[in-house]
Predict the structure.
Amino acid sequence: MSGAMNREGRPTRPVEASEAGRAVTATVTGNRGLTVEEPLIFEQDNPGAVGVDLPEPPHVRCRLGAVRPRGRIGLPSLSEPQVVRHYTRLSTRNMGIDTTMYPLGSCTMKHNPRLNEKMARLPGFADLHPMQPMDTVQGALELIDQLAHWLKALTGMPAVAMTPAAGAHGELCGMMAIRSALEDRNDPRRRVLVPESAHGTNPATAAALGYTVDSIPADARGRVDLEAFKAKLGPDVAAIMLTNPNTCGLFESDIVAIAEAVHEVGAFFYCDGANFNAIVGRVRPGDLGIDAMHINLHKTFSTPHGGGGPGAGPVVLSEALAPFAPVPAVVHGPDGRLRLVEHAEGDFAKSFGRMKGFHGQMGMFVRALTYILSHGADGLRQASSDAVLNANYLLARLKDVMTPSFDGPCMHEALFDDRFLKDTGVSTLDFAKAMIDEGFHPMTMYFPLVVHGAMLFEPTESESKETLDAFADTMRALVERAKSGDAGYFQGAPYHTPRRRLDETGAARNPVLRWQPDMPAREAAE
Amino acid sequence: MSNVKYTQDHEWVRIDGDVGTIGITEYAQEQLGDVVFVELPEVGKAVTKGGEAAVVESVKAASEVFAPIDGEVVEVNDALAGEPGLVNSDPTGQGWFFKVRVKDASQLDALMDEAAYKSFVEGLH
Amino acid sequence: MRYLPLTDADRREMLAAIGVGSVDDLFRDVPAAAHLDGPIEGLPLAKSEMEVERIVGALASKNLPAGSVPCFLGAGAYRHHIPAAVDHLIQRGEFLTSYTPYQPEVSQGTLQYLFEFQTQVALITGMEVANASMYDGATACAEAVLMANRLTRRKKAILSGGLHPHYRDSTALLGRFIGFDLVRPDPDPQGGEDLVSLIDEETSCVVVQNPSVFGQIRDLTPLAEACHAKGALLIVAISEVVSLGLLTPPGEMGADIVVAEGQSIGNALGFGGPYVGLFATRQKFVRQMPGRLCGQTVDADGRRGFVLTLSTREQHIRREKATSNICTNSGLCALAFSIHMSLLGEEGFRRLAELNHANAVLLADKLASVPGVEVANDSFFNEFTVRLSKPAAEVVDRLASADRERRVLAGVPVTRLYKNRPELAGLMLVAATETNTEEDMDALVEALREELR
């Protein structure tokens, strides 16, 4: 049935996949070589097995008070080899930066250095309790202080709040500082201006704090329309929330004028630092007139994305906002020793308070400082240069077959829209799914909202020219295929992944958010 | 169908006596994609023309549904809780959202009739 | 530089393809005055891997690792033994370096473990549904109050005097800025506070920690009933999740929302972060739950798979109307939790809890025999409050800076958690976990005996 085989058992001619061929290659398990079907941990319960060895508890009088010991929980029992195999198999069903180019716009999927991981795991950091006496953790406090110093120097800002747990948390921090500053001078205001291209966290944060969100339109060049912006400014505006470079991958050329106009009406300039990777080491946002900016350590400073978290979002602050920064904060004591200020008192009497438990994402601080020290001021500048170069190179290699949304060079990310797919029957989503089969993680889709079917590519400085060329060649081939009328191929993609397209409608209409003992295993239909 | 009027936000209202039945149009459901959930107002709630009355969710988007006219909600479509897909399959029939007691029938004059809405939609492309 | 693949030859070729002379040309939109023409002055330049290791390692060695001396610190973060397999598995590159699973076809690894995590959290808390994790217990608590306010359409939350002050303060912050009221009874070391009398028709929720920050355990069933009678919700916070291996879970006592700090399972102390917040509730409240949710579905070939779902609650879609502004969950920390839970299983989790409680009872009995030490709790899980005859903060500092042999991390002085409360100066929180040996305990006893003579 198959092509002729030579004596070593290798086919002498390529084999055509046929119905019979597919039937012959079907497996008993449904597994396909290294791609293995892996049940839920709950479906592998082996009562009596255990994955830990704990000693017998000493016999003591129970002191649990009025509460009785609980009955059966329903957790599955497995041995260590089974658990290791389960999670190892699960991991093989993921793409990661370690496996392929991941050009998600505004996510900065750069290489996650392993030195970061090694340093974070030193017992001198990993085995520190957050409430140890401060004399026993001077090295940890010094690390936080050093990272704070770097962040201030790189941004040209005088102060930094280190505690926010993620970028969105940092936004909350910056906007709370702004609102506190306005209340402190008895000038509460009602409106916050946000560009229509902004990430959803910006208006969500402003609205959560009670502000009315007013949208600023973009001009034909994809930047904030300066005149339209000025027309919306007034003494009732508390702040503008601007991303720079913006979510279209463009530097806001009028940013200094914007900052001046904002300050003229007594408002504050919040900068979303998600795209700091384009300018780190080359431009200090403080020089542009910002008052506050959150920094995503998991973007610009290489801490791992971990499948969705944890992140860290320290916020640099101006002189005017610094007094309102949250606690805890690391300060230098009179005796030269470092300590944590944990309550709103003394120099921190005006602090707006505490944002979370303990004092910050220390594990991410260790990683970020390790990364920063590795690059240094010159290396960081080179990294942002390469990031911008890589994005422009991709733009140059693709702009004749795809439709860039704006003319001219981009910063660290290149924005296209779906005009080049017009009348092909292929959507941005379909195109992205075909990229997956080619072994690349897709770009960011449908964001920003200001163009139709947005495709935002951020290669980062971690991609080699060879990878970019392979990527560009693949994209060009896919465009050609889309234009040749092969819409059906794209609409059915991906074909070669552990799962094909998934029914998200069904998942939302009938949410099943946990395993239940009476659920059928494996093929569970609606 | 002459008792049906339309808004520029793609809501329709069908008048029967002093009760108006309100839903979203065929065009709207197509733009939204598969509807997964509808948040309906409470019976008895007063809605105002142009004010948010309901929310319709698809997988990737959530859209406000605005009341085309002032009124008091007298009935909501409970079927949508179990079958939100009715909004997609029958947006002008079984996929209705809520009914109001009409306060001011003259507000209907400002809305589009079927022909006007049809050409409005064509002009959107 | 080893992280940057481009060579100078590459850069030249690429600039030529783009059609500019230098990279500076690509920054033409930057105002000239702000465009630095060299590395920022006063900052160090690149260092080799060896040098960086030396520098960062030196900072690490200036700290006293908790495990290098007898350690009895708790107060919301607990020192547990993490099985070796956990840390290896979370460092698989496909877990470590992947993004949020927005392309589910190539994220089934992440999505499946999130589904398993959500199930584990629901099981241990005794609730119907859980989310894919929050930043930590304190922020989960604050978000729970917001959720209760939305559900009840009321704006007054009662925060127990036994609630960890970090949770209380994180919640108060949102109260101040988002606009709701708080009733905050005083810190309650004795565990005798009366919350029921504070509940009225304007109360959206009562937030109580069990065991409390002082270690007291109570049956919350009467409180749950009192809340529900007035149309309010009961939120239960748990800062030591191992307690759920032994104690009746909040779900069985009538809780409407359970929030917890998950750090104890799978995650090192790490000097305070990153940690992992757990959030669980009733099925009927699921659309008001903050944070990410993973749901089961099928793919085009009819096979079971998983996707992020109910996304329209989240900020990137609802924007101004989102249930919260939260973007990230605690991904890798949730994975660590889930792997550790899988290794523990039904018997292991229970035994871990029994060990913790037994060690704490042993320690409490030993400490009670020391003159100047009084154990304040009737009940506790693995942490209790002691009253010392001298201010606890000084005692703790002296014991932590004693000579090698006698050095002990004795406990957390309660005054560190509360500002301006001199009446609490003699109190100290003491925790014992499975990692404490009897030698550790005797060392603490001896140290205190010396100290308080």
Summary: The longest helix of chain C spans residues 331-368. The CA atoms of residues 24 and 30 of chain C lie 10 Å apart. Chain C has a mean pLDDT of 95. The radius of gyration of chain C is 25 Å.
